[in-house]
Amino acid sequence: MSPIDQLAARVPRRLRGEAWQCFALGLLAAVALPPFYLLPVLWFVVPALLTRLARAGGWRRAAWLGWCFGFGFNLLGLFWVTEPMLIMASNFWWAVPFAAPALAFATAFYMILPALAVFAVPQRNQAGRLAAVLLFAGALVLSNLAQEFLFTGFPWNYWGADWTFAGRLGLAMIQPAAIGGIFLLTLLTALAAGLPLLGRRGWAASAVLLALWAGFGFARTSAGPAPLTRYTVALLQPDFAVPGSFTQPALQARWRRDLALTREALDKAGKGPNIVVWPETASPALLQTDAAARAAIAAVAGNTPVLAGSFRLAADGSMRNSLVAVEGKGPAVAWYDKWKLVPFGEYTPAWIPLKVTPGGGFTPGPGPRTLHVPGIPSVGPLICYESIFPGIITDPKDRPAWLLNISDNAWFGDTTGPYQDFATTRLRAVEEGLPIVVDTNSGISAVIGPHGRVAGTLGLDRAGILIGKLPVALPVTPFGRFSVTMSGILGFYTMVLGVVCLIVSITLM
C-alpha cells in the first residue's frame, strides 16, 4: 500500500470517497507551488491520482475526479485573489467568500482532459502504466495551452513554476524553458512525478530523468552570469497604499514622493547612462499630455529617460493603462498601452452581458510592442498581468534588447500571489533569452538576467530604490522563435508516444 493509500485509510469513512481523495490530492499538489516549493509531494500525489482515475469505472466519473483534483489544487493555489476584496471590503465584502472558489471552480475544468486521457488507458501492465503517465503529461501541456487562450486566458498555477526556487539547482532546473517554455517544465514535472507508478523501475527512471534535466541546466548556466551592458537601471518602489486617496493633497504628496525618489535614485546611480523606472500607475499625472508634469520630471532627471506607469487618454477618448517614456522637457518620446487587461478588474469581457467594471474600465492596446527610446536599448514593456502569458509578450518582428515589467502587487498583500507572480515573470527571461527588469509598487522588484539568474531584489512591503546594471541578452531561444507552437508539438508527440505504449500494452495483454 502506498503512503497516500495508508493516509487515506485513516480518514473518516464519510470522507473516504475518491472524489474527496482527489480533492485532497489537489490540495497537496498545490504546496509544490511558489513560495512553498514542497516538490517531493508530487512523486506521491501523481501516482495516487493516476491510480484513482484508472479505476473510475466510467468516463463521466473520471472527468468528475479530475475536476475535483483541479478544484482542490486551484482553491489553495488561488486563495490570494480574495485579498483585493478584503482591502475594499466596504464595497466588495459580499465577494470575499466566493472569489477564490469561483475561480477555482472554473480553472478546475482544465484537469478534465488529462483525467480522461488517463482513464482511457488500461493500467494492467508496465506498458499500460507508462502509457498513462505519458498521456497524462502530454494532455496536461495541451490543457495548459488551452488555459492560456480560452475565455481571455489565465495561465496560472502551472506545474513548471514549481522549479523556480532560489539557488543553483533551481536555476538549473528552469533552463528547459528556453526550449519549450514553462510548458516543457510542466511536461517534465508530470513525467518525473508520474513514473513511480511503474514501481522500482519507475523510481529509477524518474531519478535518471531528473539527473539529465539538471545536467542540461548546469551545462547551460556553467558560464556564470550574463555580461552586463553599460546601462544602469534605477527602480523606484514607493510602496504606496492601495487603493489610496484621490484627493488633491494626497495626489500632490504622491507626486512629490515620485520626484524625491527619482532624485535619490539618480544620486545613488552616479554618473553614466541611467534609466529610471516608475511602477504601474505611479504617476498621478497624465504624462503624455501634461507638459507641466514632464517639466517637473525634467527638473529632477534632466535628459535621463524616465519610464513611468501612467494613465493615458487616447485620441479616441478612451482611457489606457500605460507606460510613458519621458526624456527632458519635450513631448513624451514613446508610450505603450497595456493590451492584456485583467477581466472584471480593468474591463468587462464582451461575453458578459452586464458591465461590472468600476468606471467603465480601460481600453486595451493593440498588442506587444517594442519601444525605441533615444539613448537606451530597445525595450519590450509589460504591465502587471501581462507577464504571466508565455510566448506572446514580445513583438516577433522587432525583438527588444530587454523586457520591463511594471506592476502594483500591493493589492495582494503579503500572500502567495506576489511570490507566484515573481516566479512566473522570472521564467519569461529564460523563455525569451532576454533580461527582465521588474518594478513594482510594493515589491518584489528585481533585475533578472537572461538565464533567470536574479541579480538583485527589493522585497515585499518595503519602500526604496533598487539599482543594477542591465544584463546583455542571449541569442533568440527556440521558444522565443517558435513560441507556444513548440510547446504544443512537445505535448502532442508525448501523447503520440503514449498511444504507442498503449498499443504495446494491448498487444501484451
UniProtKB/TrEMBL annotation:
| Keywords from the named record | Acyltransferase, Cell inner membrane, Cell membrane, Lipoprotein, Membrane, Transferase, Transmembrane, Transmembrane helix
Biological process GO annotation list? lipoprotein biosynthetic process
Q: Which GO terms describe its cellular component?
A: plasma membrane
Is Cell cycle among the key words of this record?
Answer: no
| Classification via CDD domains | ALP_N-acyl_transferase (cd07571)
PANTHER family in the record? APOLIPOPROTEIN N-ACYLTRANSFERASE (PTHR38686:SF1)
**Designated name of the protein:** Apolipoprotein N-acyltransferase
User: What organism is listed for this UniProt entry?
Assistant: Acidiphilium cryptum (strain JF-5)
Please name the gene that encodes this protein: lnt
